[in-house]
Design a protein that fits this description.
Elements lengths: L4 H12 L16 E6 L16 H10 L4 E3 L5 E3 L2 E6 L5 E6 L12 H12 L8 H4 L8 E4 L2 E5 L7 H4 L24 E6 L5 E5 L12 E6 L3 H9 L5 E2 L4 H8 L5 E16 L9 H10 L2 H8 L5 E2 L22 H10 L5 E7 L6 H13 L3 E7 L5 H4 L6 E7 L3 H8 L15 H11 L4 H18 L2 E14 L2 E2 L18 E2 L1
Parallel strand pairs: 1-10, 1-11, 14-15
Antiparallel strand pairs: 2-3, 4-5, 5-7, 6-7, 8-9, 9-10, 11-17, 12-16, 12-17, 13-17, 18-19
């Protein structure tokens, strides 16, 4: 990305204001501050964990709050605030037993907190990022059955329920909480100061149920530009640089004494989204022309520098449970041109929306536009404002680039692809058939029957939804050479974006 002089000077000034990391012992009594660099969300930022739509929101939520379960690297549920999550024979009634954990003010976590949280997430007024996952809770029938027990009743059977509880945006908040300017959580850090668009500073929670963090303080430093984040890492101003492009990853690997690279292979799905609810991509022939008109191998080779894997228009990857066994889509310029002639869409012009939200979006849009020109489409990249990009592309335009971290496939389908309106749907796709298949799948106790239904859903989404996965990209973060306690982890997994075990030495 090319920086204007004004933007470059602004970035330089911001970095100059960050003091270099001081070496320290890193023990529980150390007075160190761990600084981590993420793109910010500007004045729209919030510490409300249920509005966690960006990676920085999710990481800050993990610092202050906890979820009942967490997702492993294999996208299965592991217990966190919940000690056990057990269903009855029907899959509608679930009993959750909580571990002994306390809020930052010392009061105990209770079942009432859990039920309040679920109600708040599901309330349309909250506009929670995980709202679609909790709309199936029967709040009239659900109840707290003891100080550390809660019974959750679902409107319909769902044997994947434990996965909901580890989703981003499902953090437990204290009953009655409405003000999140300085929230009280159960997490490893307490909020010390927060300025929307500026730094957020946390202090260690010595009473954290999973052990006090080694770092006395944690500071989230907003650095929008990816190259500036890399520069801050290599100059010692931050100890963690979020989301590095392949070229930056190579720079980190070339300086082992100063920084280290943590890579989670094939962890993010890179999308080219085509709006199926409006022209020109309401016509399936035009959508198919784009599908077979882009050269995925070239995109991976040029944009991702050969890292990652060619996508097959299906979320996730072959290693995930319920991923369907289907032939790989390949480029076919002749077929693409024939489809456009049949649809009378030759020389069609449209915009490819992109932003700096992901450093790969811009290069991918430029190369994809060149490839589509070869089949007779005039696609023009248009850069939108990063802080509002994902909101804008849900409602405007006809084609956009987005990215998704790894989710359990049932969660991904339930959150994003049901026919009801949802804030994560970028193509306008709706399908009552998928609704029925999904509901049937999660209600089945038999794993093989559930797998067959979910694989069928994935195949339908691939063919009809307009969401083209052109690559499964690696996930790269950079850390200071002296930083320990952070693992290479897939986005959205429990271990990703956590700093409660991090130590600078």
């Amino acid at each position: 990305m090319t920086l204007s002089r004004r933007r470059f000077l602004g970035t330089t000034a911001a970095l100059a204001a960050i003091p270099a990391l001081a070496a320290c012992g890193g023990g529980p009594g150390a007075s160190d501050r761990l600084r981590v660099a993420f793109p910010g969300g500007g004045s729209r930022e919030s510490l409300d964990p249920h509005l966690a739509t960006q990676f920085v929101d999710q990481a800050r939520a993990k610092a202050c709050f906890d979820t009942l379960t967490g997702w492993t690297q294999e996208m299965t549920a592991q217990m966190r605030l919940a000690e056990t999550v057990e269903p009855d024979a029907t899959g509608r009634r679930w009993r959750i037993r909580l571990r002994q954990a306390t809020w930052h003010d010392g009061s105990p976590l209770t079942g009432d907190d859990v039920l309040y949280t679920f109600r708040r997430i599901a309330d349309p007024a909250t506009k929670g990022s995980a709202a679609s996952l909790f709309k199936g809770v029967d709040f009239t029938a659900s109840r707290s059955t003891g100080p550390r027990e809660v019974e959750v009743v679902l409107a319909a059977p769902d044997f994947t329920f434990p996965l909901w509880l580890g989703a981003p945006g499902a953090e437990i908040v204290r009953a009655g909480t409405t003000d999140f300017t300085k929230p009280v959580g159960t997490g490893p850090f307490r909020v010390q100061s927060f300025t929307p668009g500026g730094a957020t500073v946390y202090t260690r929670n010595d009473a954290y149920w999973d052990g006090a963090p080694p770092s006395a303080e944690l500071e989230f430093v907003p650095i929008e530009d990816e190259q500036a984040r890399l520069g801050a890492l290599l100059s010692g101003q931050v100890a963690y640089a979020h989301d590095l492009r392949p070229a930056s990853a190579r720079q980190v690997q070339g300086q082992p004494g100063r920084a280290a690279l943590l890579t989670a292979p094939q962890s993010t799905s890179q999308y080219l989204n085509l709006r199926v609810d409006r022209p020109p991509f309401a016509d399936p022939r035009v959508r198919e022309a784009v599908r077979v008109g882009i050269d995925r191998e070239a995109l991976v080779r040029v944009v991702l520098l050969g890292t990652g894997q060619v996508g097959n228009d299906v979320f996730g990857g072959p290693e995930l449970q319920y991923y369907p066994d289907i032939p790989q889509v390949t480029r076919d310029v002749g077929r693409a041109r024939a489809l456009l002639r049949e649809a009378r869409a030759e020389n069609l012009a449209f915009e490819l929306q992109t932003s700096g939200s992901d450093a790969n979006f811009g290069p991918a849009a430029t190369l994809a536009a060149e490839q589509l020109a070869e089949i007779g489409l005039r696609a023009t990249p248009r850069v939108l404002d990063a802080p509002t990009y994902f909101t804008a592309v849900r409602t405007s335009g006809v084609a956009s680039f987005t990215r998704s971290g790894t989710f359990p496939i049932p969660d991904f389908i339930g959150r994003r692809r049901l026919s009801k309106a949802d804030n994560s749907n970028y193509t306008g796709y709706r399908s009552t058939e998928i609704d029925k298949l999904y509901a049937a799948a999660v209600s089945r106790r038999d794993e093989s029957a559930r797998a067959a239904d979910l694989e069928r859903v994935q195949t339908l989404l691939r063919n009809d939804s307009g969401a083209l996965v052109w690559a499964l990209s690696d996930w790269n973060v950079g850390v200071a050479a002296g930083l320990s306690g952070i693992e290479a982890a897939k986005p959205n997994s429990h271990l990703w974006g956590r700093f409660d075990k991090a130590r600078v030495s």
